Amino acid sequence: MLNTDFTPPMLDGVCASKLHLPPQSLVSVHTIFEYLCQEFPHIDQAEWQQRFHDHLIYDAAGNQLQLNSPYQGNSHVFYYRFLAHEIEVPYEHQILHETDDLLVVDKPHFLTMSPTGQYVQQTLLVRLKKQTNNADLTPIHRLDRETAGVVLFSKRPQSRGLYQQLFAERQVKKIYHAIAGYRAELPFPQTIKLRMQKGQPFYTMQVVEGEANSETHIELLEQHNGWAKYRLSPHTGKQHQLRVHLNHLNIPIQNDPLYPEVQHKAEDDFSRPLQLLAKEISFPDPVTGQIMHFYSNFKLTLK
User: Fold this and answer.
1) In sequence order, what are the residues at sequence separation of 6 or more whose Cβ sits closer than 8 angstroms to the Cβ of residue 234?
2) Sign of the alpha-carbon torsion through 132, 136, 139, 144
3) CB 207 within 8 A of CB 195
4) The whole model's pTM is what?
5) pLDDT (0 to 100) of residue 199
6) 253 secondary structure, DSSP code
7) Which residue, 67, 251, 290, 300, is the most exposed by fewest CB within 10 angstroms?
């Protein structure tokens, strides 16, 4: 009887991805290698060949597959993702707090949360998995690659849903700091409410007419030489919400590569970090019942 309880081991902080294989009648390939090349056309065939050569492809029973391994419909395969070349992010994270269920981490600028695109090893999740040797680590929420600050990770699948529910029920309070333009005519504090949707390019957001679906409370902390430091309290969690809201007020965040205009930077250019910081997070711990409150050790300063 086929053993389908196989779970591939974590390798160098990377967990295997699982891919379902459709019935043979729905595909026109003869080998699993051919199917992977067809399913992921953006990945060079030579890279798949190397993964097979390095024994990084398994079938559902845990057998290492070869380039000529026949296609197995109505099953699944596991594969690992490693990149031949990755740009090293020269900034380090810090673990702020740890319980049996939760890991609270201070994320630096420029570090992507999870493997995607051109980053695998140089992501916060993989760095943490290597550091803790915990393959179950999972982000409970996310920060943009450009944003620094406090982020939460689940350590155990058994309690993960409890923490995720906190965010779904808006029981988590987050406070950000930002350095952005200063306009004397703008009154603060103020609450801005806007309707946001996907923009062009697809990885940006835009403001449109209609009922608001995003809300941020903005306070002015200090200002100097045309720049100001703001305290931002988002009441919703739309993608790029804080960046879009400040840009809408014509005070875009300092060094923002997307707003008001997309500015393409070299991947190894770490000279101008986005001046946005997830400074505080607080929530009732669903396991202990305690009110938890954490602060980033990073600081944004006016110059």
Assistant:
1) 174, 176, 214, 215, 216, 217, 241, 242
2) positive
3) yes
4) 0.90
5) 95
6) B
7) 290
